[in-house]
Specification:
The chain is of the alpha+beta class and about 250 residues long. It contains four helices and 15 strands. It has helices spanning about 1-20, 30, 115-120, 160-170, and strands spanning about 50-60, 60-70, 80-85, 105-110, 130, 140, 145-150, 155-160, 185-190, 195, 205-210, 215-220, 225, 235-240, 245-254.
Protein backbone atom coordinates (compact mmCIF):
# COMPACT_ATOMS: atom_id res chain seq x y z
CA UNK A 1 0.00 0.00 0.00
CA UNK A 2 2.79 2.40 0.91
CA UNK A 3 4.67 1.62 -2.29
CA UNK A 4 1.55 2.40 -4.33
CA UNK A 5 1.14 5.64 -2.43
CA UNK A 6 4.71 6.72 -3.14
CA UNK A 7 4.30 5.94 -6.85
CA UNK A 8 1.09 7.96 -6.93
CA UNK A 9 2.75 10.90 -5.18
CA UNK A 10 5.69 10.76 -7.58
CA UNK A 11 3.40 10.75 -10.61
CA UNK A 12 1.37 13.62 -9.23
CA UNK A 13 4.55 15.56 -8.51
CA UNK A 14 5.72 15.14 -12.10
CA UNK A 15 2.46 16.56 -13.46
CA UNK A 16 2.63 19.50 -11.08
CA UNK A 17 6.26 20.02 -12.05
CA UNK A 18 5.30 20.49 -15.68
CA UNK A 19 2.33 22.70 -14.84
CA UNK A 20 4.31 25.22 -12.78
CA UNK A 21 7.73 24.94 -14.47
CA UNK A 22 9.17 24.15 -11.06
CA UNK A 23 12.77 23.14 -10.41
CA UNK A 24 14.81 22.20 -7.39
CA UNK A 25 17.23 19.63 -5.91
CA UNK A 26 16.47 16.00 -6.65
CA UNK A 27 17.78 14.44 -3.43
CA UNK A 28 16.58 14.93 0.13
CA UNK A 29 20.00 15.99 1.42
CA UNK A 30 20.40 18.62 -1.30
CA UNK A 31 16.92 19.97 -0.52
CA UNK A 32 18.17 20.73 3.00
CA UNK A 33 21.43 22.31 1.78
CA UNK A 34 21.30 26.13 1.83
CA UNK A 35 24.20 26.39 -0.63
CA UNK A 36 24.04 23.60 -3.24
CA UNK A 37 26.45 24.42 -6.06
CA UNK A 38 23.94 24.01 -8.90
CA UNK A 39 21.39 26.47 -7.50
CA UNK A 40 22.67 29.98 -6.62
CA UNK A 41 19.55 31.16 -4.72
CA UNK A 42 18.05 28.20 -2.85
CA UNK A 43 16.40 29.98 0.07
CA UNK A 44 12.90 29.52 -1.31
CA UNK A 45 12.96 25.75 -1.03
CA UNK A 46 14.48 25.20 2.43
CA UNK A 47 11.83 23.48 4.62
CA UNK A 48 10.83 24.94 7.97
CA UNK A 49 10.01 21.61 9.65
CA UNK A 50 10.93 17.96 9.04
CA UNK A 51 8.51 15.58 10.72
CA UNK A 52 7.01 12.13 10.89
CA UNK A 53 3.22 12.49 10.90
CA UNK A 54 0.06 10.42 10.64
CA UNK A 55 -2.97 11.51 8.65
CA UNK A 56 -6.10 12.00 10.75
CA UNK A 57 -8.51 13.63 8.26
CA UNK A 58 -8.96 14.97 4.74
CA UNK A 59 -9.89 18.59 4.10
CA UNK A 60 -10.52 19.74 0.51
CA UNK A 61 -7.12 19.38 -1.24
CA UNK A 62 -5.22 19.17 2.07
CA UNK A 63 -4.82 16.87 5.04
CA UNK A 64 -4.84 17.22 8.82
CA UNK A 65 -1.70 15.52 10.13
CA UNK A 66 -0.78 14.52 13.69
CA UNK A 67 2.90 15.02 14.43
CA UNK A 68 4.59 11.84 15.68
CA UNK A 69 8.27 12.83 15.71
CA UNK A 70 10.25 15.99 14.93
CA UNK A 71 13.62 15.92 13.18
CA UNK A 72 13.92 19.67 12.64
CA UNK A 73 11.79 22.74 13.34
CA UNK A 74 9.48 24.01 16.07
CA UNK A 75 6.45 21.71 15.84
CA UNK A 76 5.63 19.47 18.81
CA UNK A 77 4.63 15.77 19.11
CA UNK A 78 0.86 15.20 19.16
CA UNK A 79 0.27 18.59 17.49
CA UNK A 80 -2.29 18.46 14.65
CA UNK A 81 -1.41 20.63 11.67
CA UNK A 82 -3.07 21.28 8.31
CA UNK A 83 -0.93 20.59 5.24
CA UNK A 84 -2.08 21.80 1.83
CA UNK A 85 -1.21 19.98 -1.35
CA UNK A 86 -2.02 20.71 -4.99
CA UNK A 87 -5.45 21.67 -6.28
CA UNK A 88 -4.19 21.16 -9.85
CA UNK A 89 -2.62 24.60 -10.32
CA UNK A 90 0.14 24.79 -7.70
CA UNK A 91 3.77 23.70 -7.27
CA UNK A 92 2.84 21.20 -4.57
CA UNK A 93 2.47 17.46 -4.12
CA UNK A 94 -1.04 16.06 -4.06
CA UNK A 95 -1.78 14.88 -0.52
CA UNK A 96 -5.33 13.58 -0.95
CA UNK A 97 -4.04 10.10 -1.86
CA UNK A 98 -3.18 9.41 1.77
CA UNK A 99 -5.54 7.22 3.80
CA UNK A 100 -6.38 8.07 7.41
CA UNK A 101 -3.76 6.38 9.58
CA UNK A 102 -0.98 6.49 6.96
CA UNK A 103 2.37 7.61 8.38
CA UNK A 104 4.83 9.64 6.29
CA UNK A 105 7.97 11.71 6.63
CA UNK A 106 7.57 15.19 5.18
CA UNK A 107 9.74 18.30 4.93
CA UNK A 108 7.24 21.15 5.21
CA UNK A 109 7.16 24.83 4.40
CA UNK A 110 4.91 27.50 5.89
CA UNK A 111 1.89 27.90 3.62
CA UNK A 112 2.18 30.81 1.17
CA UNK A 113 -1.65 30.95 0.77
CA UNK A 114 -1.28 30.77 -3.03
CA UNK A 115 -4.13 28.27 -3.29
CA UNK A 116 -6.61 30.93 -2.21
CA UNK A 117 -5.92 32.86 -5.39
CA UNK A 118 -4.90 30.19 -7.90
CA UNK A 119 -7.61 27.73 -6.86
CA UNK A 120 -10.31 30.33 -6.19
CA UNK A 121 -10.79 29.29 -2.55
CA UNK A 122 -10.32 30.75 0.92
CA UNK A 123 -9.37 27.54 2.74
CA UNK A 124 -5.68 28.23 3.40
CA UNK A 125 -4.89 30.10 6.60
CA UNK A 126 -1.82 31.63 8.18
CA UNK A 127 -0.23 28.96 10.36
CA UNK A 128 -0.95 26.17 7.85
CA UNK A 129 1.77 24.26 6.01
CA UNK A 130 2.36 23.13 2.43
CA UNK A 131 4.18 20.25 0.74
CA UNK A 132 6.23 21.59 -2.17
CA UNK A 133 7.08 19.61 -5.29
CA UNK A 134 10.16 21.74 -6.12
CA UNK A 135 12.68 19.38 -4.54
CA UNK A 136 12.47 16.20 -2.43
CA UNK A 137 10.11 16.92 0.47
CA UNK A 138 8.60 13.49 1.12
CA UNK A 139 10.10 10.14 2.03
CA UNK A 140 8.62 6.72 2.58
CA UNK A 141 8.36 5.18 6.02
CA UNK A 142 7.47 1.61 6.97
CA UNK A 143 8.44 -0.67 9.88
CA UNK A 144 11.12 1.66 11.23
CA UNK A 145 12.80 2.24 7.87
CA UNK A 146 12.96 5.53 5.92
CA UNK A 147 13.34 5.26 2.15
CA UNK A 148 13.75 7.49 -0.87
CA UNK A 149 16.37 9.51 -2.79
CA UNK A 150 18.41 10.52 0.25
CA UNK A 151 21.72 11.21 -1.50
CA UNK A 152 21.27 9.90 -5.06
CA UNK A 153 18.77 11.21 -7.62
CA UNK A 154 16.16 8.61 -8.53
CA UNK A 155 17.43 6.07 -5.98
CA UNK A 156 15.49 4.32 -3.23
CA UNK A 157 18.06 4.42 -0.43
CA UNK A 158 17.08 3.19 3.03
CA UNK A 159 18.12 4.09 6.58
CA UNK A 160 16.73 3.28 9.99
CA UNK A 161 14.71 5.94 11.77
CA UNK A 162 17.56 6.56 14.24
CA UNK A 163 20.05 6.90 11.39
CA UNK A 164 17.70 9.31 9.60
CA UNK A 165 17.83 11.72 12.53
CA UNK A 166 21.61 11.85 12.19
CA UNK A 167 21.33 12.29 8.44
CA UNK A 168 19.07 15.34 8.87
CA UNK A 169 21.58 16.91 11.24
CA UNK A 170 24.33 16.33 8.71
CA UNK A 171 22.47 17.65 5.67
CA UNK A 172 20.82 20.67 7.28
CA UNK A 173 23.23 23.55 8.00
CA UNK A 174 21.82 25.61 10.87
CA UNK A 175 24.38 28.42 10.72
CA UNK A 176 25.38 30.79 7.96
CA UNK A 177 28.30 29.55 5.92
CA UNK A 178 31.06 32.02 5.23
CA UNK A 179 32.34 33.05 1.82
CA UNK A 180 35.72 32.89 0.15
CA UNK A 181 38.58 30.42 -0.19
CA UNK A 182 38.33 29.34 3.46
CA UNK A 183 35.15 27.44 2.60
CA UNK A 184 36.69 25.31 -0.17
CA UNK A 185 36.82 21.76 1.15
CA UNK A 186 39.60 19.75 -0.49
CA UNK A 187 39.00 16.02 -0.96
CA UNK A 188 41.51 13.56 -2.40
CA UNK A 189 41.54 9.79 -2.69
CA UNK A 190 43.76 7.64 -0.52
CA UNK A 191 44.22 4.03 0.53
CA UNK A 192 41.83 3.34 3.39
CA UNK A 193 39.59 6.33 2.74
CA UNK A 194 39.49 9.92 1.48
CA UNK A 195 41.65 12.74 2.84
CA UNK A 196 40.00 16.04 3.78
CA UNK A 197 41.65 19.43 4.21
CA UNK A 198 40.95 23.17 4.16
CA UNK A 199 43.33 25.74 2.63
CA UNK A 200 43.42 27.98 5.72
CA UNK A 201 44.48 26.51 9.10
CA UNK A 202 42.18 27.44 11.98
CA UNK A 203 40.29 25.82 14.85
CA UNK A 204 37.35 23.79 13.47
CA UNK A 205 34.96 21.05 14.58
CA UNK A 206 34.76 18.30 11.96
CA UNK A 207 31.94 15.73 11.60
CA UNK A 208 31.65 13.14 8.81
CA UNK A 209 28.47 11.09 8.31
CA UNK A 210 28.11 8.16 5.93
CA UNK A 211 25.14 7.53 3.62
CA UNK A 212 23.27 5.79 6.47
CA UNK A 213 23.58 8.84 8.72
CA UNK A 214 26.17 7.22 11.01
CA UNK A 215 28.91 9.44 12.41
CA UNK A 216 32.22 8.10 11.06
CA UNK A 217 34.47 10.87 12.34
CA UNK A 218 33.99 13.60 14.93
CA UNK A 219 36.91 15.64 16.21
CA UNK A 220 38.52 19.03 16.66
CA UNK A 221 40.44 19.92 13.53
CA UNK A 222 42.95 22.50 12.35
CA UNK A 223 42.20 22.07 8.62
CA UNK A 224 45.35 20.06 7.86
CA UNK A 225 44.87 16.78 5.92
CA UNK A 226 42.93 14.13 7.84
CA UNK A 227 41.90 10.70 6.58
CA UNK A 228 38.41 9.25 7.04
CA UNK A 229 38.88 5.48 7.18
CA UNK A 230 36.36 2.76 6.45
CA UNK A 231 34.01 4.65 4.13
CA UNK A 232 32.47 2.61 1.33
CA UNK A 233 31.81 3.96 -2.15
CA UNK A 234 28.84 6.31 -2.23
CA UNK A 235 27.88 9.65 -0.75
CA UNK A 236 28.91 11.04 2.60
CA UNK A 237 28.35 14.36 4.35
CA UNK A 238 31.07 16.59 5.77
CA UNK A 239 30.18 19.28 8.31
CA UNK A 240 32.76 21.84 9.46
CA UNK A 241 31.96 24.37 12.20
CA UNK A 242 33.95 27.40 13.23
CA UNK A 243 32.20 29.44 15.91
CA UNK A 244 28.87 30.57 14.46
CA UNK A 245 29.82 29.59 10.93
CA UNK A 246 29.03 26.23 9.38
CA UNK A 247 30.00 24.51 6.14
CA UNK A 248 28.12 21.40 4.98
CA UNK A 249 29.10 19.53 1.83
CA UNK A 250 27.99 16.27 0.24
CA UNK A 251 30.86 14.29 -1.28
CA UNK A 252 30.58 11.26 -3.58
CA UNK A 253 33.22 8.57 -3.09
CA UNK A 254 33.71 6.44 -6.22
Amino acid sequence: MLRSLLIALSAAGSCSLLACSCFGPQTFCETLDPQPPQFPEPEWWIPSDIIMATKVASVEYGADMKVVQIFSGTLQPEQVIRVWGDCGLLCRHYVDGLANGDTVIWALQHCDLSGNGSCGTSFEQAGDYQLSVCGIYWLGYENGVVSGPLFTEGANETVTLAEFAGLVNGCLATAVAGNGADDELIVRDGDGGPWLSLPTPARYELTVLDAAGRVRLSRSWDGTPVQVRGLNAGAFVVRVRQGERSLVRKVVLL
